[in-house]
Write a structure and sequence with these properties.
This protein has about 170 residues and is of the alpha/beta class. The protein has one domain: Rossmann fold, CATH 3.40.50. It is built from five helices and five strands. It has a five-stranded parallel β-sheet with strand order 2-1-3-4-5, with helices on both faces. Helix 2 runs parallel beside helix 5 and helix 3 packs parallel to helix 4. 1,3,4-trihydroxy-5-OXO-cyclohexanecarboxylic acid binds next to loops.
């Protein structure tokens, strides 16, 4: 299945309609340390491994991935703004920002396409402060607790949503 950029229901102002639609893959704080950071919780795959896995899944659907990781809330807000009218969808693992960064909530609320929240671990099965997500209310859906498989599932969910809109 491929997604025709002209028919995906997302404003394409400023987009080269001839290029494949992009999905913004956003990672928040400390996720640059994946591979060595608490591997008993987050596994041994690096951020690069997760990006590569998502890119591989995206290629199946004629989508491309734009991957950005930042430890700074404002940079993630800027990346979301920059995706408006340009990217077809967003897949986001906001890291700890998930639990309190309302600026990400608001920026995502202003994005027109599907949004999938991904967590490697299952925050709902961890400390109580992780049970709140300020991103979930503005996401199309959330995929948690499946490790790196979550990114592949998220990409499939995005592709299905885009195909529905086509
Ligand atoms: C995480 C879960 C968050 O609670 C945590 O702060 C992270 C990683 C995950 O992918 O499981 O940094 O987003």
């Amino acid at each position: 299945m491929t997604v025709d950029p002209e028919r995906r229901g997302v404003p394409l102002s400023g987009v080269d309609a001839a290029s494949p639609p992009c999905v913004l893959l956003l990672h928040g704080p400390n996720l640059n340390l994946l591979g060595t950071r608490e591997p008993e919780i987050y596994g041994t795959a690096t951020l690069g491994d997760h990006v590569a896995r998502t890119e591989q899944a995206a290629a199946e659907f004629g989508l491309t991935i734009e991957a950005i990781q930042s430890n700074h809330e404002g940079e993630l807000v800027d990346a979301i703004h920059d995706a408006r009218g340009r990217c077809a969808a967003i897949i986001i693992n906001p890291g700890a920002f998930t639990h309190y960064a309302w600026s990400l909530h608001d920026a995502l609320a202003a994005f027109e396409g599907p949004i999938v929240e991904v967590h490697l671990s299952n925050p709902n099965a961890r400390e109580p402060w992780r049970h709140t997500s300020v991103v979930a209310p503005v996401a199309s859906g959330s995929i948690v607790g499946f490790g790196g498989l979550g990114y592949e599932l998220a990409l499939r969910a995005v592709a299905a949503r885009l195909a529905e809109r086509a």
